[in-house]
C-alpha cells in the first residue's frame, strides 16, 4: 500500500509508540511485507530468523522487537509488538469506510460495462470498458479491473487475507493482520460463480490477462497468476503463490502457499502441489509428481496383492 503523501518517520514513531533509531529525517511512502517492499516502505519483523531478511530488504523503515544495529541510511522502530504496531498503521492510513449504496460514488466504471442488480462495487474501485458484473457480485474497495472482464454471480473480489498471529496466552488467541492491499484483474479475464479472490496483505493479488476461472475457486492473498491460465472448479491456491503463464489446474487441485508453478504446467484433477514445480510438464498426485511417473507407480501399487500372494505361495 502506498500513502497518499509521504509521512515523516517521526510521525510513524509517535503513532506506534516505538523508539526511533537511525535516520530520523526519512519519509515513509508506503507499507509492505518483506517480499514486496520497495524503497520508502515500512515493513515489520518479529521473528529472529527473519531479522536479516527484513533489515537487508529494500524497506527503508523497519518495525522490529529487538534493538539491533541500524543498516546505513535506514531507520528502525523498536517496540515489543511489531505486529500490533503494523496493524495500527494500517487502521490509521487505510481505515474501513462504511458503504450505504450499491455502487460507491468514488468507483470509476468504464463505458459499456454492465453492473447487474444486487452487485456491490466498493470505494475507489476501477472497472474498465465492456465488462459484465453479474448479480450479487461483491467487489471490495480499491480493486482494479481491466476491460472485457466477466464476473459471475456470487463471487467476492478483495476480501481480507487469511493471516493471523497466535496469542497463546489469550482466551481469543488469533490476532488479525489487517489487509491494505488490492486485487488487480487484468483485461479479458472471466471469473466463474462463487469464486473468492483475497486482496494482498499490503501488496496486490494479480490475475493476469486472458485467464479463465471456473466456479468455486479460491485465490489466497498476494498470489500472482499469469496470463492465459485455466483453472477448473474447486481449485484452491494459498497465499503468495506465483503461477506463471499458460498454467492449467484441473478440478480440486490444491496449491500450497509461497511456491511457483512454472509456465505451461498442467496439474491433473485432485492433485496437491506442495512445492514449486517446473513448467512445461504434466503432474498428478498428492504431493504431485510428473504424471507418467505417478501413473507407473500406481500401476505397481495395484500389483502388490498379486506379488504378495506369489511370495507367500
How would you describe this structure to a colleague?
This protein has five helices and 34 strands. The chain is of the alpha/beta class. Strands 7-10-13-18-21-24-27-30 form an eight-stranded parallel beta sheet, with no helix packed on it. Strands 9-12-15-20-23-26-29-32 form an eight-stranded parallel beta sheet, with no helix packed on it. Strands 1-3-4-5-6-2 form a six-stranded mixed beta sheet.
Query: Quaternary arrangement of the chains shown?
Result: single chain
The tally of strands reads: 34
- Low-confidence spans: pLDDT under 50, at least 5 residues? none
Helices and strands: which structural class? Answer: alpha/beta
Which bin fits the share of residues in helices? 10-25%
Average pLDDT, to the nearest integer?
95
Entry summary:
The chain is of the alpha/beta class.
Topology (SSEs and partners):
Blueprint: E1 2-8, H1 9-16, E2 19-22, E3 27-31, E4 41-45, H2 51-55, E5 61-64, E6 75-78, H3 82-93, E7 108-109, E8 114-115, E9 120-121, E10 126-127, E11 132-133, E12 138-139, E13 144-145, E14 150-151, E15 156-159, E16 164-166, E17 174-176, E18 182-185, E19 190-191, E20 196-198, E21 204-207, E22 212-213, E23 218-219, E24 224-225, E25 230-231, E26 236-237, E27 242-243, E28 248-249, E29 254-255, E30 260-261, E31 266-267, E32 272-273, E33 282-285, E34 288-290, H4 291-302, H5 304-312
Parallel strand pairs: 3-4, 4-5, 5-6, 7-10, 8-11, 9-12, 10-13, 11-14, 12-15, 13-18, 14-19, 15-20, 18-21, 20-23, 21-24, 22-25, 23-26, 24-27, 25-28, 26-29, 27-30, 28-31, 29-32, 31-33
Antiparallel strand pairs: 1-3, 2-6, 16-17, 33-34
